[in-house]
Amino acid sequence: MSTIEIKNVSKSYGKNKALDDVSLTLKENCIYGLLGRNGAGKSTLLNIVSNRIFADSGEVTVDGEPQADNDSAGQDTYDERAAFV
Fold first, then answer.
1. What is the pLDDT of residue 19?
2. d(Cα 57, Cα 38) in Å, to the nearest integer?
3. How open is the CA angle 44-71-28, to the nearest 5 degrees?
4. Element holding 25 (H helix, E strand)
5. What is the per-residue pLDDT across 7-60, written as a single tens digit (0 to 9) for each?
6. 62: nearest Cα among 85, 81, 35, 42
7. Is 85's pLDDT higher than 70?
8. How far is CA 72 from the centre of its chain?
9. Which site among 22, 39, 46, 73 is 20 to 30 Å from 60 CA-CA?
10. Distance CA 71, CA 67 (A)
């Protein structure tokens, strides 16, 4: 896994927007931290990246390939995420 790109990702639960047009790029061999208050969307973002839930809009790619359609990319992402839990 070299790069995870999150582009314009949004997710709502009913009337509550957990994520609103979030975009960022995560590169290999870098340490990142997600900070925010309760309900800010941190877990929602990680669940979308690890393919546990689906975004309402936007896309997540791993090395340029769509995360949702790529089982091997999802496994790599899940393994990396599990290392931080």
1. 95
2. 22
3. 65
4. strand 16-27
5. 999 999 999 999 999 999 999 999 999 999 998 999 999 999 999 999 999 999
6. 81
7. no
8. 15
9. 39
10. 8
Burial bucket for residue 58 (CB in 10 Å: 0-12, 13-18, 19+): middle
Tokens coding 18: 């957990």
- Cβ atoms of 22 and 10 within 8 Å: the answer is yes
Residues in the chain: 85
- The candidate with the shortest Cα–Cα distance to 48, out of 29, 68, 62, is 68
Please state, in angstroms and rounded to a whole number, the distance separating the CA atoms of residues 16 and 71: 30
d(CA 47, CA 72): 16
Rounded Cα distance between 68 and 30, Å, is 23
Instruction: Please tell me the distance from the alpha carbon of residue 32 to that of residue 6, in angstroms, as a whole number.
Output: 14
